[in-house]
Amino acid sequence: QHARHKPSSASSMSSPTLSVHQHGKSKVRLGRTWREGSVHHFVEWSVNTMLESSMEKAFINGDNTGMTATDTQKNTVYVVAQRMNKRCTMEEYAIALAQHFVKQYPLVSKCKVYVEQKPWVRLQQNGTPHNHGYSVSGTETRTAYVTCDKAGKLDVTAGVLGLQVLKTTEAGYVGFIRDQYTALPEVKDRILATSITSTWRYATLPSDYNAAYATAKQAVLDAFFGPAQGGVYSPSVQYTLWEAGKLMLQRVPQAESVFFNAPNIHFLPCTPIGSAFKDDVYIATSEPHGNIECTITRGSAPPHVPMSKL
After folding, report:
1. Phi and psi (nearest 5°) for 129?
2. Is-cis flag, bond preceding 288, omega within 30?
3. Which residues pair with 120 in a beta bridge?
4. 154-167 and 108-117: which strand pairing?
């Protein structure tokens, strides 16, 4: 039988402590239309709210007096959306929502808002933008994370989730350790594919969040693909992420910290029966996959995302 762990005398005598706590509402789905004459503008957001507050008594004593209920948070998501009577970005909406909670409720010390935007884009009908028609374009989801405390301090982080990219050449992987556990061959020409998640924190707030997002996303695409004719060579996912982070910081001066997560999605060379591999047929896989992360900062700015746990 296993010996039972005996707690130290100090830990056995210590009283339990409520170290941290918060409460919020998740995945509140919201659609918002702004009608500007005959032209309509539409967004769809999924909104998460989280409040830090002086509500220890709810945990310790079962006393809910003064608590901002999660149902109240859900309802407020829609109320603030309606108040945004002029077309706004997801960041501007998240700022307004976070500021509302810290101003409206005395016990709330900090509000955190996370928003995902579905990629609805205006429909092009025979080359002409449709007045009110939209279709989903792309696989990626635009994200925003905003925090606001009682003193009015704002932090804004933008991002993209699930940006799926692939190139059929101009990539390789050589020089890694080869030992009795290594089966991976060295290659100087391979398919490189990934689904990029990236976030970037603003040190100063952009005057145009849409333009800043578009510029940041294009920096990632330019670093990954290179010029349309010839492309750019990638010796590893690691090197490409570093180049993308440098380019983003160069083009988006308001950003000070850029985080990347990029799984290495493998396409394995296939030898069809009775033939040979001719750089043409691959086995598409999703798991297992490599997983590469990094944070690139401007100068000595602190990284805004810690390394992920397994």
Report:
1. -60, 130
2. yes
3. 136
4. unpaired
Catalytic, 266? Answer yes
Options 40, 57, 70, 215, the catalytic residue: 70
Specify the residue for token string 């700015």: 301
120: three-class secondary structure by DSSP: strand
- 70 a catalytic residue: yes
Is residue 193 within 8 Å of residue 213, measured between CB atoms?
A: no
d(CA 192, CA 267): 8
Residue in 25, 100, 112, 304 annotated catalytic: 25
Determine which one of 112, 266, 295, 304 is catalytic: 266
From the list 130, 138, 249, 251, the residue with the least C-alpha distance to 195 is 138
SS3 labels along 197-222:
EEEEEECCCCCCHHHHHHHHHHHHHH
Q: Give dist(CA 210, CA 215) in Å, integer.
A: 9
Residues 209-234: pLDDT tens digits?
A: 999 999 999 999 999 999 999 999 99
Q: CA-CA distance, 4 to 229, in Å (whole number)?
A: 67
The total number of residues shown for the chain amounts to 310
49-67 pLDDT tens trace: 999 999 999 999 999 999 9
Residue 34 CA to residue 185 CA, distance in Å, equals: 55
Whether 27 sits among the annotated catalytic residues: the reply is no
Element (H, E) at 71: helix 70-83
